[in-house]
Amino acid sequence: MMKAVITGDIINSTAIPIGQRAFLLQLLDKIIRDLGHLCSLRYEMFRGDSFQILVDKEELALHIAVLVRAGLRMNTPKEANEIWDARVAIGVGSVDFISDNIITSDGEAFHYSGRALEELGKNNLVVKTRWKNVNEELKVSTMFADDIISNWTPTQSFVIYQSLAFQKNQKEIAKLQKKSSQNISKISLLAKEKLIRLYINRYYDLITLNKE
């Protein structure tokens, strides 16, 4: 059966004060649970700063991975030295065995995701699938998207999160932020939301077409 696996780790986790780490783990748990309305998700934390998410609908994996990063960035404590974020690797392929513990499950998707994370280098986002044409098309666009996401401010991340996760319009987000709709529109423009949406939609179309 086809699935997607997102393997990630918190960037510079050792620099996060001990007093904030419990909050960080609770936050990641909340983000992933909140995103469960998009599709069925199972996840597990390991090594203290790493996580793995099994995504039931592989065509939504990129959408979820982007939102995990946005959720972390928007909740960065004001006293933090740098914005919280995660390196994430998406693997799409067959899953042969699902155990009670996600990290002991097995299959192509797990292998692709794990290896891709090890090969990430200085980038923070990568997609690896069983289809060569998909990998080639997404390689460059993923690098551009990663550059955009890696520069989101907490406020920009909040706007993107509310828009992409819950389909809230700019008027609704403005009420949450106690800002004007025009201000939210400017934030969305600076965050390049339209480009990120195009990228996510293209991934969705490619996975949907190739898995048929």
Keywords:
212 residues; alpha+beta; Alpha-Beta Plaits; 5-stranded mixed β-sheet; 5 strands
Structure notes:
The protein has 212 residues and is an alpha+beta fold. It has a single domain (2-211), classed as Nucleotide cyclase, GGDEF domain (Alpha-Beta Plaits), CATH 3.30.70. 52% of the residues lie in helices and 17% in strands. It has eight helices and five strands. It has helices at 18-34, 61-74, 108-118, 132-149, 154-166, 170-177, 181-190, 193-211; strands spanning 2-10, 41-46, 50-55, 86-94, 125-129. The chain has a five-stranded mixed β-sheet. Helix 3 (108-118) links the parallel strand 4 (86-94) and strand 5. Helix 2 packs antiparallel against helix 5 (154-166) and helix 5 packs across helix 7 (181-190). The radius of gyration is 17 Å and the shape is globular. The two termini are 12 Å apart. 39% of the residues are buried.
